[in-house]
Amino acid sequence: DAGVIQSPRHEVTEMGQEVTLRCKPISGHDYLFWYRQTMMRGLELLIYFNNNVPIDDSGMPEDRFSAKMPNASFSTLKIQPSEPRDSAVYFCASSLMGAQETQYFGPGTRLLVL
Amino acid sequence: GENVEQHPSTLSVQEGDSAVIKCTYSDSASNYFPWYKQELGKGPQLIIDIRSNVGEKKDQRIAVTLNKTAKHFSLHITETQPEDSAVYFCAASITGSQGNLIFGKGTKLSVKP
Predict the structure, then answer these.
(1) What is the pLDDT of residues B24-69, one digit of tens each?
(2) Is residue A91 within 8 angstroms of chain B, CB to CB?
(3) Residue B28: φ, ψ to 5°
(4) B94, HSE (Cβ side, Cα atoms, 13 Å)
(5) What is the end-to-end Cα distance of chain B in Å, rounded?
(6) Which residues pair with B90 in a beta bridge?
């Protein structure tokens, strides 16, 4: 398996623009997680899905953030409108059985909002 | 909710020496404690984990210890090598929680040849 795939790897955009981050989890994994990593706050869970259904989005910072998982092999994290404070590395991870089993992280998307 | 504190934030050792990273957690209901290694430009990767019914676990040069009473756990790396240089994260997950893995802030380990 190729592992968790994320695109794009780097994104530079201007404040106010819409940003869409994409993730393909490992085939057969029932759980998908979106994390944000910054120097100040470390690794934070934004939202996670089980069998394509959003279970907990309490980590989503505000209504500008939304996530979808239309099928078992694809998820998106959207920021609209983007702000400079959204600049961070966004990781997608997948696992077979949730947070208490190995989570396999993608390479991340480094987002810079100018 | 759960809070995980990790120390030190940076650690520099000579090749061949041992390295120890310590974490404390706040919620006694936590029962799963993984350690992740993150190399530059990559996502975190699980290197070892321990559950609350076990006090110690080893995998070659890496070991993790857990003290449930004191609510702390530690990562021990022996005979360090330059390729061990990375950022290490501890984490904790509460019993029954399928989504919430709380991470420490990370330790940047540098192994000098």
Answers:
(1) 999 998 999 999 999 999 999 999 999 988 899 999 999 999 999 9
(2) yes
(3) -65, -10
(4) 12
(5) 41
(6) B35
